[in-house]
Amino acid sequence: MKKYFFLLLIALVGSCTTTKNKSKEINIYSQRHYNVDELQYQNFEKMTGIKVNVTKANADELIQRLKNEGENSPADLFITVDVGKLWQASDMGLFQKFEDKSVFENIDPQFLDKNGFWVPVTYRSRVVVYSNERVKKDDLSTYEDLANEKWRGRLLVRSSSNAYNQALVSSLVANLGVENTFNWSEAVVKNFARDPKGSDRDQVKAIAAGQGDIAIVNSYYIGLLLSSEKEEEIKAGNAVSVFFPNQDDRGAHINVSGLALTKNAPNRENAIKLIKYLTSIQAQETYVNNSYEYSVNPSVKPDPIVQEWGEFKKDPVDLNMLGIKRDEAIRIFDKTGWK
Amino acid sequence: MEIVQKYITNRRKLIFSTVFLSLFVILPILALVFSVVKIDTSNFQYLWDNLLFEYSLDTIYLITITSIFSLLFGILPAWYMSTNEFKFKNIYDIFLYLPLAIPAYIMAFTYSDVLSYTGPIQSFSRKYFPDFADLINQDYLQIEVLGIIMALSLYPYIYTACRLSFSLIGANYINLSRSLGMSRLKTFFKIVIPLSRVAIFSGLFLIIMEVLNEYGAVKYFGVNTFTSGIFRSWYSMQDVETASLLAVLLFFIVVFFFSIERYLNSRYKFNYTPNTKKFKNEPLSFKNRFIIHLVCLIPIILGFLIPVLFIINNVIYEFSRIDFIKVFNLTTNTVIISLIATLIILVIAVYFQFLKRILKNRTITFFNEVISLTYALPGAVIGLSLILLFTSYPFENELLIGSFGILVYAYVIRYMAVGISPLKSSFDKHPSSYDDTAFNLGMGPTKLFRSIHLPINKSAIAIAFLITFVDIIKELPITLILRPFNFDTLAVQTYEYAIEEMIPKSSIYSLAIVMLGTILLIFLKKIVNKEIDVPKSK
Q1: Secondary structure (H, E, C), A55-106
Q2: Which residues from chain B sit within 8 angstroms of residue A235, using beta carbons?
């Protein structure tokens, strides 16, 4: 009995020390959990023979982990679906600068980090979808207009703990100021059809179910619904249309999914290879066709389903603002009762 | 006492070893408390002003609903099971345990899909019964619905406790009460429930802890519990100290209730002689039979059959795309890590119970209670506390964070109490004259343990092993926060797909958890039945 216990103990202590990185590896902390990502890593492994190790978790957890691990962090790359988190981690000094010009040539300059820490991979818009039955397209105009009384009891959106909502409201704080955004949020909360809950797709389903008429969701979720194998989900996707707000002024809110080299990336060279791969035309096309996101490379066209919604004007606000204004956005949520 | 003194020469060392082990288990709580010292109160003030009241209300409301339904689903079937004979009784008895194999978050995601607008029920009725479809077209992501769903996966704690208690009360009291002219209903409320109060409370306590521990499902349903507050400060506000303060507060609230439970437990020490006297077997009327079957079948159907059938249906639908190698690997991961953690827990727990018994030392008894307290920490809080611990002086060890070892350590902390409780009652049950006699006959402590305590507590050790194992297999929040690179468990994979609404994709992993749990629970059931010797009135 004793002997086994000691053996167990030795095994445990042995497993406590993570194996030192060999040069044919790369370690990623990623918030992205779409199927397309596994596909990308497999392709990259085939091309380069570099093994991709991934720890997937929510961005906040990963940032805490990077911070706590400090110099000893095994991670080379940090990937998120929200630029706010990229700014936050760079602000905390967790990244190193990335300045490879050959990568930037393929990317629309609007999406680039002014400080040179993170690299965008895809972008998406947080749009308004509306019921084809109960809402006319002309009734919609801007995010600001969602505060209008005519939407009382008709608006659906998920919880304020969701990063996409935090980014949207951060963009409003950046564009309109704290006070205006506060008033906006207060009125929007009054317009809720129900307490915020569920995911973006649930909001669309709720429109199909008649529990509300308009919803704030990320664009690619509609693509995912429309390409579903379930007849009922396609029907739900077809019950709504996509509307890009603020087309007559600053443009629709966008957010990027991006990555950055960690401060002490132990496999820096391999990580740079992966960054180059993920921003290449081949990988960008893989993203666009599997996850219904938009490519940061202007020459890569969206998936046909997404193309049908047409082109749209994008809010040109500095994307780092989506992180800088996040604290204020969260306080506005809490104070105006956006659950 | 004197006899023991004579034979155990290294008494001090032994006591010291238990204190040392306890510190190992409660270290994270200390880390939290120390972190609170550095707090900047402005964030706490902010939470207090804006959110905490609502979070507390939601927490209490959710706990209330879950408790009420768990009591309903648990007590009534246990009562009928213990006092009546009817068809399928033995099958029902096993099935009533099985919802324990389905983690609450899987139950919640499954039901939200089953009930959703695009789910099978609503789609079907839209096609064939449009009027009915309008009626059931509701928003099911409600706190009340969540409470009932959680009750469906947690009621077996009550059922188990009641089943055991009712069978220990035995037929004597009940037959007597019936002979004295009390109605069934009156007997139930005046005799059975008061006598089982302690058992019911301890089951309820476990349920409340599970509700506080819940994270994924609660978030999805838009319900903000106290645990959400901890995350709000930790993540959204980047304020670890405020998060720690909330965790410490929660801990003390729970410990307070825990102590009340303990106090009641000690005050109402019933000494009923277990008896196997036959129940008066009155022939049941058709109406009563119908009610009994209904009462037993509702929790079985809702808590086990529907979710499992739905999961299986999804597995069939996804079958051609299932990566069986991955399923196999994740199952192996889950089983190995759960097994290691369970064994460590058992070794520590048995060591404590044995020393407590032969040394009869207050320090050990005290620390035995203390190490059970960590069950009052939600898993996510244990994750937070270990990160705090290993990033602060003098325990800084970055290599440990995100390693296999720390994950096992966290499991050990969280589930120590689960392993201890069955062992404790079994070790306390046997008269201490066993030990005295053994010592007098010249047995050393090791021999005493091996030839007496190990065999007589065999069932309890098996029970402790099985319930701890099942719990760790289902564990989610700790694993999410602390797991190493490329290391996923079935629970983590299920959650990742489910939260992205890829329920069909998650189904094979859910099914693996449920199957593992089911097999273990059936074993458990067999042992428990042997142990309590459920009176059979045939």
Answers
A1: EECCHHHHHHHHHHHHHHCCCCEEEECCHHHHHHHHHCCCECCCCCHHHHCC
A2: 118
